[in-house]
Amino acid sequence: MSNKVLMKGNEALAEAAIRNGCIYFFGYPITPQTELAEYMAKRLPKVNGVCLQAESEVAAINMVLGAASSGVRAMTSSSSPGISLKSEGISYMVGSDLPCLICNVQRGGPGLGGIQPAQQDYLQATKANGHGDLHLFVVAPASVQEMVSLVGRAFDVADTYRVPAMILADGALGQMMEPVDFDAALSERRELPEKTWATNGHGGKRKKNIVNSLFINPDELEKSVLERYQRYAKIEENEVLYEETMVEDADIVIVAYGITSRICKSAIEMARAEGIKVGLVRPITLWPYPKAALAKAAETAKHFLVVELNMGQMVDDVKVATNCRRPVSFFGRTGGMLPTAEDVLAEIRKINGGIR
Amino acid sequence: MAVVFDKPHALSPVPFHYCPGCTHGIVHRLVAEAIDSLGIEGDTIGIAPVGCSVFAYNYFECDMIEAAHGRAPAVATGVKRTNPDKIVFTYQGDGDLAAIGTAETVHAVTRGENITIIFINNAIYGMTGGQMAPTTLPGQVTTTSPYGRNPIVQGNPIRVCEMLSTLDGLAFAQRVAVDTPAHVNQAKKAIEKAFKNQIEKKGLSIVEVLSTCPTNWGMTPGDALQWMRDNMMPYYPLGVYKDVDAK
Amino acid sequence: MNKVTFRTELCKGCGLCVDACPKKILALNTDVLNEKGYHPAGITDQDKCIACAMCAMMCPDVVIKVEKNI
Questions:
Q1: CB-closest option in A55, A72, A88 to B107
Q2: Cα–Cα distance between A298 and A301 in angstroms, integer?
Q3: Probe site for chain C from B5, B14, B60, B209 (most C CB atoms < 10 A)
Q4: How far is B137 from A177, CA to CA, in rounded Å?
Q5: What is the ipTM, given to two decimal places?
Q6: Is the predicted pLDDT of residue A356 greater than 70, yes or no?
């Protein structure tokens, strides 16, 4: 029997976090993610948790840093401008090897931008969400149900490898209501390492722990970065997630993630009905990136089409993953505008004409 | 023979990196003495700042966290909210607490976070080599106020205890100095009270310690103490600015 | 007799203990350089020490241990 409930994406993210043992939330209101904080404010006091509205996103991420240092699961959420503010704290959490979950329900930018859905933080999230050599485990859900299952995955990966994880969603997913089955999403659990490094008082029973990102000697700093990159290599080896749709016989392979992938799926159906062989690779983890899946697709596909709600931020990743073996086109809308399936279909037709 | 004075246990047996005569060492010791006398080393989590005391995590035997510049009160909030029965303190300088971290400080106080803040006011940025601090006095020469701080151009100093004592969440604020044995004793009592208040869940306690920076002030350690007495104490009067216990 | 011990390897020769001593029996030993390259502080007349610990209270580097004869 399924236990489906109808929920808004932002609220489902919050409930999923609680069900994954995260009862500490620190945030700051910003459209279009505010329902997440509001949901936490309602629910967490009832499960002996803490929901604290910080004075800023800067403070919120540092509260998460403090909470995570104690060894508990902690999270924050925001939308694009707020994530920029959190970047400082995110870098410190990476440098201090602290796990946590950060939700970015993206809106249009740059600057104050707008409040409509966008995917304009792809490069920030996957390449440099803060200073220094760093990565986050970044997942891009495409439905409310997937948001729920990826929250658990993100916390598990964060705890396993001691890295911050990010759910990179967008305003459309955050605001849309869909049926969710929490039990189905919670079925998969993994064994997690004990947090022996936590600073929660040594109680006279162990040596003191230090949570720190400062290494004044360059050789020590290099060593710490190299050790972290060994963990990153393991994440790249073990934690890549993607979905393939009709790639085997496809002449044109669309690469799209999140809400955009759903528009592309409709376009693919329409194209197939016209006899154009189109498939989809949907990266679910944006870092680590599904390079192998794209390299494999490049063996048979003739052309790649990247579709995003930005100006083509993922294009280079596709070119690198496919070693530039096939042409890579881009189609996108930005600033909060969404393409229709017909818009994507028009691009498919154009490329198809070129192939012939 | 009775030992009347020795290194407290909560202070790590490593040499400080501070310059000769820098009063950070005295205040570190007073914090460790308070931790010892209250028997809370195993329950305490300290938050180090950015500034000269950035390495404070090496100097205390309790668990320690190194925070980003100015963010120690937010980090402390995260620690305390997840461990309400543990003892959490921040150790911050004037740039950390009263410039880049003003928002974190003010809001931790107004929320009444049950933590202890040790605030070192030496009216200058030490670690970066003597730049103007939020607490640099009018007329005081620093490398970024080379003609003396002109309030019309560079603004006025902040009196932290006075400002924070207007906020409801504050349990205790006292400004002390470490220029004489008598004042060191007073500072010791204030710091101990600030920790005891936390154990008794009274809210946020802050102890502001007027300190010296002989190196960047360009003085001998002894002259620096005298300069502090002559110049800082009139602008930053010592005393208790708030005490919820006071009748 | 009271006893003041200096961990001279930690001393930075700042002289705050010398200034604080009410009996004026502390001095920097200018004949000696410690590992750090400072003239360390020391006691010149142990007999006159009253074990008040004012020197230790003012020492920023926890160099001084004070013991009182009881």
A1: A55
A2: 5
A3: B5
A4: 58
A5: 0.97
A6: no
Token pair listed for B115: 């933590």
- Report which of B208, B218, B215 is spatially closest to residue B238, judged by C-alpha positions: B208
Chain A nearest CA to B63, separation (Å)? 5
DSSP assignment of A66-129 equals HHHHTT--EEEEE-HHHHHHHHHHHHHHHHTT--EEEEEEEB--STT--SSB--TTHHHHHH-S
Across the interface, of A67, A92, A208, the residue whose CB is closest to B82 is A67
Supply the pLDDT for residue A133. Answer: 97
pLDDT digits (tens, 9 = 90+) for B100-118: 999 999 999 999 999 999 9
Chain A interface includes B10 (CB < 8 A): no
Asked if B62's CB is within 8 angstroms of A201's CB, the reply is: yes
pLDDT band, residue A185 (cuts 50/70/90): confident
CATH topology of domain B24-243: Rossmann fold (3.40.50)
3.30.1490.20, 3.40.190.10, 3.40.50.920, 3.40.630.30: CATH of A243-355: 3.40.50.920
- Cα–Cα distance, B179 to B136 (Å, whole number): 18
Is B78 in contact with A64 (Cβ distance < 8 A)?
Answer: yes
Distance of CA A67 to the CA centre of its chain: 21
pLDDT at A312 over 90: yes
Percent of chain B past pLDDT 90, that is, above it, reads: 99
Among A188-197, B38-47, B59-68, where is mean pLDDT lowest?
A188-197
DSSP E strand boundaries for chain A: 4-8, 24-27, 50-53, 74-78, 100-106, 137-139, 164-170, 177-181, 210-211, 242-245, 252-255, 278-283, 285-287, 303-308, 328-332
Q: Tell me if B214 and C14 make a contact (CB, 8 A cut-off).
A: yes
User: Chain B partners of A88 at a C-beta cutoff of 8 Å?
Assistant: 68
Q: Check contact B-A (3+ Cβ pairs < 8 Å).
A: yes
**CB-CB contact of C49 with B1 (8 Å):** no
DSSP conformation class of C46: G
pLDDT band at C59 (very low <50, low <70, confident <90, very high): very high
**What is the residue whose two structure tokens read 């004044």?**
A216
Domain definitions of chain B by residue range:
24-243
CA A311, chain centre distance (Å): 19
Quote the pTM value: 0.97
Å between A211 CA and nearest CA of chain B: 5
Question: Is residue A1 predicted with pLDDT exceeding 60?
Answer: no
Give the domains, in start order, of chain C with CATH numbers.
3-67 (3.30.70.20)
Q: How far is C45 from chain B (nearest CA, A)?
A: 18
Q: What is the mean pLDDT of chain B?
A: 97
B179/chain C closest Cα distance in angstroms: 8
β-bridge pairing A303-308 and A328-332: parallel
Question: Can you give the residue ranges of every domain in chain A?
Answer: 4-238, 243-355
Determine the Cα–Cα distance for residues A106 and A168; give it in Å rounded to an integer.
Answer: 7
Distance CA A61, CA A75 (A): 8
